[in-house]
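Run log, item B.
One chain of 201 residues. Sequence copied directly from the ordering sheet:
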Amino acid sequence: MRRGIRLEELTVAWMVIEAAVAIGAGIAARSVLLTAFGVDSVIELLSGVVLYRRLKGDSEHLEATATRISGVLLVLLCAYVVVTSLAGLLLRVAPTESVVGIAVCAVALVAMPLLAWAKQRVNVVLQSPALRADIAETVSCAYLAAVTLAGLVIAGLTGWWWVQYAAALLLLIWLVPEARETLEEWPHNGSNHGGKGVNEQ
């Protein structure tokens, strides 16, 4: 249990850094892809905080609140990606390169699978549905980092500015189902947290 709590502390600390750096770099570079990655990190941060509090034995009130916030953020994020990506493609707004963005995505791509592996080892003992859901969140973060990194690197190497918008729209394959699942869990969030949260038995 203590190791699980420490891993969640590490998760929360990293997500704070990842969200701040990705959003800041995304705005500076006019990159929808990088900004979307940063906003999703905020949602992952909420999930990490919820699980940390649950492992510490706190009540479920925070979980219900975090579910609502995550659902709203996911819907807004999906709308942001669609509107800004289509507008950027139509108006030919070329994002600039972001070395900082590439760096934070590269670190996440390496660190998140390792963190998921460490959590899985802990959950062999705990057998916690909540921690199992959080492990899936960590793996998803690695997936999003890979897509974001690929879009940034390809655009930087080839000069194909539209690749970033295409990669951002590709994120919707994951974001839309997550948003729908989270919203569907709202009536039951006293016992469950949606796709961006944790599940307890």
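Observations after the first pass:
- Helices lie at 2-29, 32-55, 61-91, 99-126, 129-158, 162-170, 172-184.
- Residues 61-91 form the longest helix (31 residues).
Flagged for discussion on Thursday.
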